[in-house]
Amino acid sequence: MSLTIADVLALPGLDSLCLRAGAAGLENAVRWPYVAENSGIAEWVLGGELVFVTGINHPRDEANLLQLLEEACLRQVAGLVILTGPAYIQAIPQRLLDAAEAADMPLIEQPYSLKMVLVTQAIGSALIQSEQLGRSRHDVLERLLAGDYQSLDLLLHRAAQLGMPLAGHWQIVQLQLEGSDALFAQGEAAQMEAQLARQHDSITRRLRQLSAAVPVLGRAGQWTLLLPAADAVAALANREQLANWLKPLNLRLAPLKLFIGLSAAAHPPARLAQAQDEARQALAAARRFSERAGLCVYDELGVLKLLSGVRDRALLDQFLNDRLGPLLRHDLHHGPSLLPTLEAWFHENGNLVAAAQRLAVHRNTLTHRVQRIEALCGLRLDNSYDRLDIGIALMIWRLSA
């Protein structure tokens, strides 16, 4: 659980703090208070700080204040607090307010009469309490998802004490961000690291908005989210909401890509461990099957549920080799052509024109490849039993890719 700008403004004793601009950033998480003493802040902050600008040690004219705002946005600080009074900064320039509003950067006015020591003490104490509460809530949720408890009733009672109403029906969402290798290949490591951190923070903030009552579990580009879903209708609404967010998000993230897997609906607390396993299976399918556009629900897996239940991996590998082994060996030595062709043919339901367009090849080339596939595998694509075997083998191949 994190302390937000809105939480800071609501702390006892800080009533004279006034939000002047940037209300869209009220949910920004505050990592720590920082008092700016130099002309700039870019080299002194790491991101997430609530920066206090006094003007005591450095003159703060309009140009300098605008520079601080620009650096605050660049470094992803949580917000700016401008101390005003007759001695140093008499008033906040309107241009600064307008720029902060446009940048969605919270800009707060603090009168000098409110002692800084009281403000920093209140924020520091709240941060410690928030961290302790957050750890306790995460611990309870992780134990529930792992099925690691002796008494479910006691664990749910503890969750209620911590402000987590879990006694309902839920849908688990698993998310994974991939493509960091491609990102780091684009530029200097420090810049790419900062960009990756910003994307993580942006995704986390959005997920917290979706799950206000229950914390989001996340580390190293992976997140777990609980969404209320009492029935299939609610689950469909969850899916549509996530899909509408994911498509434009992945366009902006490139070369990074976010994948999402959702469990079935209506899981009570006693079945959340099962729901998490479902979400993980759906996430695996979303990652390995491009036609799912980065998102998959467990209910959509179909025959993949049966394949995931086969404990002896050697059986699946043997089936794959029996059906598609010659194609695997051909593409290994000559480059990928036959397996992508087979996938495209299946995806387009045997439509040679559409499959050729999908692969950006001539129809005659595709026809030749299909004939080559049939000759190598000893299977006929116009035979329903052979098509079933090939389809299952393609799924196993994708799951093991």
Comma- or semicolon-separated keywords:
PucR_C-HTH_sf, single chain, alpha/beta, 53% helix, 401 residues, 5-stranded mixed β-sheet, PucR_dom, 3 domains, Arc Repressor Mutant, subunit A, PucR family transcriptional regulator, Alpha-Beta Plaits, CdaR_GGDEF
List strands and helices in order, with pairings.
Layout: H1 5-9, E1 18-21, E2 32-36, E3 49-53, H2 62-74, E4 79-84, H3 94-102, E5 107-111, H4 116-146, H5 152-161, E6 170-178, H6 180-184, H7 189-210, E7 217-219, E8 222-228, H8 232-253, E9 257-262, H9 272-288, E10 295-297, H10 303-308, H11 313-334, H12 338-347, H13 352-359, H14 363-377, H15 384-399
Parallel strand pairs: 2-3, 3-4, 4-5, 9-10
Antiparallel strand pairs: 1-5, 6-8, 6-9, 7-8
Structural features, described:
The structure is a single chain. The protein is an alpha/beta fold. The longest helix has 31 residues. The chain has 3 domains: 119 residues, Udp-n-acetylmuramoylalanyl-d-glutamate--2,6- Diaminopimelate Ligase, Chain: A, domain 1; 134 residues, Alpha-Beta Plaits, CATH 3.30.70.270; 92 residues, Orthogonal Bundle (Arc Repressor Mutant, subunit A). The strands form 2 sheets. Strands 1-5-4-3-2 form a 5-stranded mixed sheet. It contains 15 helices and 10 strands. It starts with a helix and ends with a helix. The model has no long low-confidence stretch (mean pLDDT 90). The chain is elongated and about 90 Å long. 53% of the residues lie in helices and 13% in strands. Helix 2 runs parallel beside helix 3.
